[in-house]
Amino acid sequence: MDLVFKRLKFADAEAISHFASQNLPVSYSLGFFLQFVYNRDGLCLYVTTKQDPDTVLGTIAGQIGPGGRAQVHVLAVAPTARRNGLGTILMKEFTNTIEDEGINAIEIQTRCQDAGAIAFYQRLGFEIGDIARGAYGALGDGLRMCKALSLVS
């Protein structure tokens, strides 16, 4: 399977918003994804295949924050593409895309109850941080995690 990574454009934002909301327990508005199109510090990538360029397999969205840190706000993979390393590939592609920005750490937040996501991020080298009480409303608290990046000069 030949993967194709694309940077989010206005024309694709509605489809990516729908994809993320269908594949995560939290819904994301079109406006949420448009910030990654118009904010110069925002980055949203999504992946399809050469064989089926209209079917989204996964997406990752985040932004470059202050102090050399990037935040990943969304990482979603289609159920049919899970357990094949696509989440890891998306995170690496995101990291590679922002590496010239002087980023020294990537932060994420996931639901405290999502043991699978927590284990996934730990396998990628993220360390458990603090709890964000009520971050997901009725879905519970958030767990902040961080991964230090090694900068090569």
From TrEMBL:
**Per UniProt, which keywords does this protein have?**
Acyltransferase, Transferase
Q: Name one GO molecular function term.
A: acyltransferase activity, transferring groups other than amino-acyl groups
Q: Which InterPro entries match?
A: Acyl_CoA_acyltransferase (IPR016181), GNAT_dom (IPR000182), N-term/lysine_N-AcTrnsfr (IPR051556)
What top-level branch of life does the organism fall under?
A: Eukaryota
Which intervals hold domain N-acetyltransferase? 3-150
Per its UniProt record, what PROSITE patterns does this chain match? GNAT
Which GO annotations describe the biological process of this protein?
mitotic sister chromatid cohesion
**Could you name the Gene Ontology cellular component terms for this entry?**
NatA complex
What's the name of the protein? ARAD1B09394p
Q: Which organism is it from?
A: Blastobotrys adeninivorans (Yeast)
